[in-house]
Amino acid sequence: GVVHEIADRVMVFYAGRVVEEGPVAELFAAPRHPYTRGLLDSAPRPGRRERLRAIEGAVPNPLHLPPGCAFAPRCPLAEPACRECVPVLEETGAGRRAACRNWRKVA
User: Which helix (H) or strand (E) holds 6?
Assistant: First the structure.
């Protein structure tokens, strides 16, 4: 909530790497990385009494990251290729970038 109020742009990091960046309002409305989606889904919402969702798995040791995408072991969209090479930030729209080969599938 604080980020949404004070920032124009935001960068989301996972295991020391940028996984998504863009205008804060757009990123909050339509995240394009599974980790960002998980963060937003796990945040409490005013007036709601539902159980918070957790991101399955554990954060990797930054000194011993898995091969490929560091989020792949926890990612519901991970494919074998995700575990082979580190994804690069790619343009996903005007002023938006995500480091995920499956960014179009993040809803």
Answer: helix 2-6
Place 46 in a pLDDT band, splitting at 50, 70 and 90: confident
Residue 101, strand partner residues: none
**Tokens 């996972």, residue?**
14
Integer Cα distance of 91 and 99 in angstroms: 9
Whether 66 and 83 have beta carbons less than 8 Å apart is answered as yes
How many Å apart are CA 46 and CA 69, to the nearest integer?
33
pLDDT tens figures, 66-85:
999 999 999 999 999 999 99
Asked whether 14 and 89 are in contact (CB, 8 A), the reply is: no
Order of all β-strands in the sheet with 96-98: 9-14, 17-23, 96-98, 90-93
